[in-house]
Amino acid sequence: MNKLKTFFFRNRVRLVGLLTIILLFLEVINIYVSFNINVTSNDECLWLGKKVNQDSVAYYFTKVKVGGVSWEAGIRDGDQLISINNYKVLNDQQAQIVLNTVKSGDYADYVVKKPDGTILNTKVKIKKLLNFGALTFNISALIWLLIGFMVYSVKPDGRQQRLFYILSITFVFTTFFNFFPQNITLFKIIQTYPIGSLIVYVLASIGASALPFTFLYFIWNFFKPIEFAQKKWVKALFIILPSLLFLYSMSLLVEFWNLDPRIFMDFRKYQNLTAIVNSLTNITAGITLVVLFVKEKDKQKRKPILLIIFSFVFALAVQIYLSTIAPALADTIFNSPEYYFPVILLILIPLIFAYAIFKYHLLDVSEVVKNTIFYSVATATVVAIYFLSIYGLGQSLSSLIGFGNEGIIAIVLFMIFAIRFQSTKEKALKFITEKFYPEQFAFQNVLIKFSNEISTVVGKEKILNLTLNTFVGSLKLKKFAILLNDDKSDNLKLVRHHGLNHTDCELDKNSIWNFYYSNLEIKDYPELSRENFNQVFGEKSETLIEEEIYTIVPLIVKSKVIGALLFGLKHSGSQFSGKDIELLYAAANQLAIAIENARLYQSEVEKQKIEHDLELARNIQKGLLPSCVPNLNGLDICGIMLPAMHVGGDYYDLIPIGKNKIFIAVGDVSGKGLSASLYMAKLQTIIQLYCKEGSSPREILIEANKLLYDSLEPGSFITLSLALFDMERMKVKLCRAGHLPVLIHDDEGTQLLRTNGIALGLDKGSLFDKHLEETEIELKSGQLFSFFSDGVTEAMNENDELFGEERLIRIFSENHYLHSTSIMEEIEKEIIQFRGKAEQHDDMTMVIVKVKN
Asked: Most buried residue, 32, 569, 610, 845, by most Cβ within 10 Å?
């Protein structure tokens, strides 16, 4: 089903074109029927019925035209019509059906009773009376159909355009009743083509039932959609009422199918009913136009409304003439049909509509008409000139070279023609467009120039200014706006505009993308027209309509909507459509790429700036770490900190107290990056401030927690191990505030020392102080201490496996005899080898302290 729908929408103009050709063919046949078949036999008089009794009516001649065919046959006013061609006249309609079978110029046998009772048998030469009304309606329907297809082909998605084409189809369908002559031929047609007759009758009923309501609804949406007409119950009413009329027409099918002569009388009732409905809808449409004219303040917009009102007045004048003046001038239509000929003037009504559409650009048709005419003439002219030139040149060369070489000459000239024709044709078309259609020529040139220039402009502000100047300055648009994606709201917000009153205009980019993507299979350039605003934007469509925005073209890069261009009407007053949209899309694509490149360029500049700042921060952080290892008797110390980013939240410090004491601190701030590094710097300042003679690790950590608790963000914390090595006493005091255990290796093996303590910043003091534990260990020759962060043991490889404490213990066990720097190098090498191609996810910090032998 989706494929079928896609096929239809992709080829809808071709399919509608095929339908139009079929209907045009049928309409031409219909006009032929009006001229040659569905004509009324005329004996140039009237038959007046007088009731004889309850069950019978006698028919008397009246208004017999002096010198007419009945007069020449001896018939006078007051004579009684007894029979026609052996049919006893009991019903004037049946009598007319019998008379209609007589060909023009042939004679019909009349039996007439004179007032004195004598019987006159006479022959009356029959004339044919053309049905001017049916002929007028057929020609009008043909014109409506041609205009309707032209309007639809320009903008198949336009609501007004679709309504106009539907209106033209209903006009054509209504004329199909003309295929059924009001005589005995009807029965012959039904008997010969039963299925075809049924189909034509159904189509004609659809047209006649829907025409008045379609016409009124079109008027309600033609110039400006009337709010009242958009209500659901109104739309429902416009479906129910024509459906009821159609069902009434279908109720006559039994008589129609059974060839019941009563069909003529019953069908006349249906015609009278539709005539009443037509009159009511036409009056309503006329009143609507007058109201629209009075309310419209723009003089330019009032002109086409006034023109359509004139067409209504003109049609009313013709109707008044036909119903009052014509009958006064002529005894009857049978005697003086020429007085009824002015009905043909009603074909001017669709022509007036067409003129209004073309003249005032109501449905964007002028471009197609002009392009078709100009380009066809240009191409035909250029081709003719080339072929005449080739023919003349060929003849001349043939006479010089000889007639045996015509084939070679033709081939050579044809090659020259093929090479030169395209460029010459394009120059000719360009010249014609420039001279006869300057707006389109300027539009094409301006957008082509814009597309070439925009790619060379650097900077988003300059790009936006160039775009605004192009569409407002060069193309003279009164309403134009550029919307771009806003990172905060993730919607499209106004960044440049001209002529808009609502500067807070904001559109949902997801709605635009959904519309664009869903229509992409249907057509190559799915622009958002005013008809789609309510469907896509809901209540916000009222703002767009109030601002006189008619077209929206999205700015798309890599299947993402980054912005949108909003357009009012062109300088000429018409809406962008057809080739205009293709050019706007080309310009919009170039603009979208330019804006995205500008964004990427700006992002790259900002990224480089941030990279530069982070590099400075990295160097500053390196400067905060110990620049050299203090030379302390009896200890071999080395430390390293490798941040996962430019800067990190890990921390280590070596703070000597005199010649025999040193504080070793290793910490880890929660999180990574710049914020963690700032907390790390603050921690370092506090630790260095409190690490002094006489202070123990536990006392220092308690003071540090008090200072940090109020300054850390909620949810942030710091783990820290602090040790005081005292080489005079050969002891070390260790205190651990929620940090990883300390690795200790000596002659007895390798172990992980865990003491109680929670992280800094989690508790104000009471809980922290209570759980903080300090331990003291005696130092031995060759003993190893390792203080490290979780970035070491939690380093992961490509299989998401952790490096772990076991591997760290093994490295110390195998390399305990080496200097601290060599052990550190082994650890670093094994971590790199273990991690493989996996990225470093956390800061890695370690300090190794070895008691010298």
From this structure: 845
